Amino acid sequence: MRFSEFLQDTHNNNELESVVANALQTLKGDANDQDQTSEVSFDALKQIINNTGHPNFNYDLFKKLYDGGNVLKNIVDNFDNEKITLKTDKQSEKDPEITKDKTGSTDVVKKMAQRALKKRS
């Protein structure tokens, strides 16, 4: 592959990533306005992206864009080849919060600190 081909491929991927991010951000915004979670089928997203002039869009290319940058990671909560779940306000309410007391590593450190404090007393 020549350097100019690499640059062109990178530019096309950046443009495609922007198109995908804009489409998903629009769906996310609509879901937030309606105070709902949002899942979109991959086939529906593929159709939207094909209509914007990117006929070669597929799951493997989406995964490559997702793994290669942070733009889609900020929008997408979970995905597979069937559907994409977006990070909506309602979705974040459904996810349990992790507290320091519930994680195993902080419990161990907390107990060690308490034992050390008892030895000093």
Question: What is the topology?
Answer:
Blueprint: H1 3-33, E1 39-41, H2 42-51, H3 59-68, E2 76-79, E3 83-86, H4 89-94, H5 104-120
Antiparallel strand pairs: 1-3, 2-3
Walk me through what this model shows.
This protein is mainly alpha-helical. The protein has one domain (3-120). Helices cover 61% and strands 9% of the residues. It contains five helices and three strands. The protein has helices at residues 3-33, 42-51, 59-68, 89-94, 104-120; strands spanning 39-41, 76-79, 83-86. It has a three-stranded antiparallel sheet. Strand 2 (76-79) and strand 3 form a beta hairpin. The chain is elongated. The protein starts with a helix and ends with a helix. The model is unreliable at 2-8 (pLDDT under 50).
Helical amount? 55-70%
How many structurally independent domains?
Answer: 1
Biggest sheet, spatial arrangement of strands: 1-3-2
Identify the overall geometry. elongated
Strand count? 3
Biggest sheet record? 3 strands, antiparallel
The helix/strand series, from N terminus to C terminus, equals HEHHEEHH
Overall pLDDT confidence? 79
Q: What's the number of helices?
A: 5
Strand content: 5-15%
The protein's oligomeric status is single chain
Global Rg = 21 Å
Low-confidence blocks of residues: 2-8
